Amino acid sequence: MEKIPMTMNGYKHLQDELKHLKKIERPNVIDAIAEARLHGDLSENAEYQAARERQEFIERRIATLEEKLSCAQVIDISKLSGSEITFGATVTVVDEDTAEKRTYQIVGGDESDVHKGLLSITSPLAQALIGRRVSDTIEVATPSGGKGYAVQSISYST
């Protein structure tokens, strides 16, 4: 299986979600199914059908999380350094058109949230940044055309 890179925070988040699903959501949905069964004919019981659909969703999500955690390659960012951008780097870029500064940390796909400055390693911007250094410029294809950025700073901290 292919390893999935993620930070320790991303790994812990997936573990917490898995624990919540197994210890809280799964028992709750089992109780809901049992309660709905008491209401009679299951073929016309909307509560029962909804609970069963919720149970299927929970079981699929548990399986997905277990697979991702088993394939996780947890990268300790505190042990990284260097002048080139790699996974885990926190990068400040300047938009060459607007001079707007943005800071992103390059993280795994499951932990990305652009609004929080967490950029997926698989995103076009992160892919263009990998291997670059301070003062390098990059061009990223966007739906509205090419966008230019200059790398202003690189750091490795959690």
The level of helicity is: 25-40%
The gyration radius over C-alpha positions equals 22 Å
Helix tally equals 3
> Which architecture of the largest domain would the CATH scheme give at its second level?
Roll
Q: Give me the count of strands.
A: 7
Termini Cα gap: 28 Å
Q: Strands of the largest sheet, in order across it?
A: 5-4-3-7-6
Poorly predicted regions are: none
The name of the CATH topology of the largest domain is: Chitinase A, domain 3
Structure description:
- This protein has 158 residues and is of the alpha/beta class.
- The protein has 2 domains: 4-75, Transcription elongation factor, GreA/GreB, N-terminal domain (Helix Hairpins, Orthogonal Bundle); 77-155, Chitinase A, domain 3, CATH 3.10.50.
- It is built from 3 helices and 7 strands, in the order βααββββαββ.
- Strands 5-4-3-7-6 form a 5-stranded mixed β-sheet. It has a two-stranded parallel sheet with strand order 1-2.
- A hairpin with a 2-residue loop joins strand 6 (137-142) and strand 7 (145-155).
- The longest helix is centred in the first third of the chain and has 30 residues, at 8-37.
- The mean pLDDT is 93.
